[in-house]
Amino acid sequence: MRLLNIKKRGTDLVVIGGKEYGTGSSRDWAAKGTKLLGVKAVFAESFERIHRSNLIGMGILPLQFKDGINRTNLKLDGSELFSIIDLEKGIDPRDEVDVEIKYVSGDIKRIKMLSRIDTKNELEYYKNGGILQYVLRNMI
User: Fold this and answer.
1) Angstrom distances, CA of residue 18 to CA of 12, 38, 70
2) Which of 30, 59, 79, 97 could form a disulfide with 130 if both were Cys (CB 3.0 to 4.6 A apart)?
3) Nearby residues of 109 by Cβ (< 8 Å), 6 or more positions away
């Protein structure tokens, strides 16, 4: 219920995951549900290969923690605000991305994450908001 209320308010969401995020998911429907909830990015320790691709196909940015950083040692509890720094300037496949985490206490931590958009084709899908939008734009 809380996620739906946040979506109604227009707040962008991120999902925080562990290792092999998306393993056992129901393929593209798991990414579709994520998109419908208003999720803009998934931060994880690693991604299941097909699910990562499906997230990009839905216009969701997969970012992977680096250098032994994870949700546990960052002490994330869901109350934090996340900012992906300079995303509007664009990214390239497998770029490092700066993410700012603002805790309820007011503390701010900045980390580097790895963009798991791995190919130029995936980047085009993401930049267009997903594979469907990419195909439709190319048809026009």
Assistant:
1) 20, 20, 8
2) 59
3) 74, 100, 101, 103
